[in-house]
Amino acid sequence: MVHNFRNDITVDWCPGCGDFGILTALTSALQELNLGAHDVAVISGIGCSGKTPHYVNAAGAHTLHGRAIPVAVGVKLTNPKLKVIVTGGDGDLMSIGAGHLVAEGRRNSGITVLMYDNAVYGLTKGQAAPTLKLGVQTKSLARPNIYDAINPIMLAISTGYSFVARGFSFEIAHLKNIIKQAVMFPGSAFIDILQPCPTYNNINTMDWYKKRVYKLDDDKTWDPVVTENDPKAEEKYNRAIEKSFEWGDRIPIGIFYVNKKIPPFTERLKQYVDNYENVPPAAQDVKTPDGRPILDPFETFKDKIIV
Q1: Cα separation, 29 vs 33, whole angstroms
Q2: 111 with 83: CB under 8 angstroms?
Q3: Are residues 183 and 189 in contact, defined by beta-carbon separation less than 8 angstroms?
Q4: Cβ-based neighbour number of residue 133 at 10 Å
Q5: SS (H, E, C) the chain
Q6: How does the average pLDDT of the chain come out, rounded?
Q7: How many Å apart are CA 126 and CA 215, to the nearest integer?
Q8: Treating both helix axes as pointing N-terminal to C-terminal, what angle do 233-244 and 152-159 enclose, rounded to 10 degrees?
Q9: What is d(CA 85, CA 214) in angstroms, rounded to the nearest whole number?
Q10: Strand partners, 226
Q11: Hey, what long-range contacts does 131-138 have (CB within 8 A, 24 or more apart)?
């Protein structure tokens, strides 16, 4: 029996929000992968995107602002068989959570990061988020944005994410297929998902995006996959970085970069942690049959206790 990942909790995002399309793409992807509720964990931070785990019929946690990634990594390393998905906004992941985002690229533990990118802080009344371009003035800003914008695709590629892509919340079938590939990829994946905020961003609207987005895979020469001993590895890396700067009249969506050469952190751990693959932390006993902890702290640390 196929598991239904969409539960019956009423969604309370604003009408026209791109989050609806992302939720549909995510739950459809998990369902088509024939995963069960106990195969998936969805972890979020703060913001409109933070509500996503509430609407997904799987294990999940709604965590602190900017801290979804370290929580997700803890879940993944404790139980490497789980498909662990982070849902965070551009403010949550690119501002207060940017350090954790970069660290996870280096670690490459095998989580999937979905970044809901609407260029504003939607939950706190439309302040400029890190992806809003310099000089842009949405209706929620008293003056044009005085900060420069972060390039999420370039950041993800350069910090080590081994699967990097961009989707559009109103291209649901296309986004669903990207999410399916990302979730099943052994290394960490990052997907920048463009979405309108109809309440606070009157510049980057649904119609604005629809006139501009185009699919990378429509170009038959586009090959983002780097394999072992690939003679074009450097060329593909540089081409993906160059493509990440394309913005304006044409905005590419699709898979920018896939690096199959770097082993995920869970594979590297096997070299140093005995029996990690067969008995990861989640499968280890922590108490005796009568309910007592296996480790008695007073016995284990008796030479450290001051009385």
Answers
A1: 6
A2: no
A3: yes
A4: 16
A5: CCCCCECCCCCCCCCCCCHHHHHHHHHHHHHHCCCCHHHEEEEECCCHHHHHHHHECCEEEECCCCCHHHHHHHHHHHCCCCEEEEEEEHHHHHHHCHHHHHHHHHHCCCCEEEEEECCEEHHHCCEECCCCCCCCCCCCCCCCCCCCCCCHHHHHHHHCCCEEEEEECCCHHHHHHHHHHHHHCCCCEEEEEECCCCCCCCCCCHHHHHCCEEEHHHCCCCCCEECCCCCCHHHHHHHHHHHHCCCCCCEEEEEEEEECCCCCHHHHHCCCCCCCCCCCHHHCCCECCCCCECCCHHHHCCCCCCC
A6: 94
A7: 29
A8: 150
A9: 26
A10: 259
A11: 131/90, 131/94, 133/247, 136/203, 137/203, 138/200, 138/201, 138/202, 138/203
Average pLDDT over residues 161-177: 98
Both structure tokens of 21:
């399309």
More confident residue, 7 or 296: 7
Residue count of the chain, please give it.
307
pLDDT per residue as tens digits for the range 223-260: 999 999 999 999 999 999 999 999 999 999 999 999 99
> What are the φ/ψ torsions at residue 89 (nearest 5 degrees)?
-85, 170
* Backbone CA torsion sign across 29, 31, 35, 40: positive
Query: Which two tokens mark 20?
Result: 């609806």
> Does 298 have pLDDT greater than 90?
no
Q: CA triplet 87, 121, 61: central angle to 5 degrees?
A: 30
The pLDDT tens digits of the residues spanning 84-136 come to 999 999 999 999 999 999 999 999 999 999 999 999 998 888 999 999 999 99
17 phi-psi bin (left φ>0, alpha ψ -120 to 50, beta other): beta
Matching residue, tokens 């629809």: 210
Alpha-carbon distance 38 to 303, whole Å? Answer: 41
Q: Environment class of residue 165 by beta-carbon count within 10 Å: exposed (0-12), middle (13-18) or buried (19+)? A: buried
Residue with the two structure tokens 């879940």: 75
